[in-house]
User: Fold this.
Amino acid sequence: MLERVVSDEGLVIYRSPLLTRIDMPHAFTTRHGGVSAPPFDSLNLGLSCGLDPGQKTVPSGATDTPEHIEANYRRVLAAMGCPSHRHAWVHQVHGSDCITVTDANHDHHPNADAQITCTPGVVLSIRVADCVPILLADETGRCVAAVHAGWRGVVAGVLRSTLAHFRQDMGVSPRQIIAAVGPCIGAEHFEVGPEVAEAFHRSGLSPAVLDSPGRRPHVDLALAVTRQLFAAGIDGGRIDRTDLCSFRDADDFFSHRRDRGVTGRMAALLAVRQTPSARPA
Assistant:
């Protein structure tokens, strides 16, 4: 299970004991410890309108600012022990593409929902406010990935795409991978239409669809991605999970569904070890 960590400055994050065991700098953020004002209070790491950090024009209707977001990222990177690392992000489109980050000066923001790197000095990150954040690392700390998995990305195979990059580009097999599944919307609060439920059935994820008489289907996104990790060959003992819910646990997390789109974003962040270890987890 993920562990809650509170810094002396009041910044609150969750960490994976499995990733911590191999000294991986990482974090699943909460809404605590930043500088943003309501309704983005306070550790907002992405504008609700979809503006990426680093863009300088704030569209009409967005109340947070790039300056706030950049300050919040600096706080998180410092808490991770990576204050001078370059921060890599993508424009998330709820698809299955995974990009490889090879340059510590990664400044463009391609459309993708996962990133993978073996480059020291780079922090990968994805942003969520109900979708599933997943952090992946090989057991030596040499290669890492950050995955954004909304329901569309789950059924489209964003995890399969990312694991294929590990295998084909990095020479890392699933049995060498450690995974951490972060807080997302829980099944009780993720009501879906029949077309979404059918998409999960077609993808072989029927156990994640919860049907009860007299109500619409609900989907357990965390269960769906965990089953995909199992199916890929990752041992259950190498997967950290949590029962936290972004919708239910309003004091700790932003939720796009609960807050009807006017909300901030958490992030999941991960970097390679500066000196990779040869010892297995």
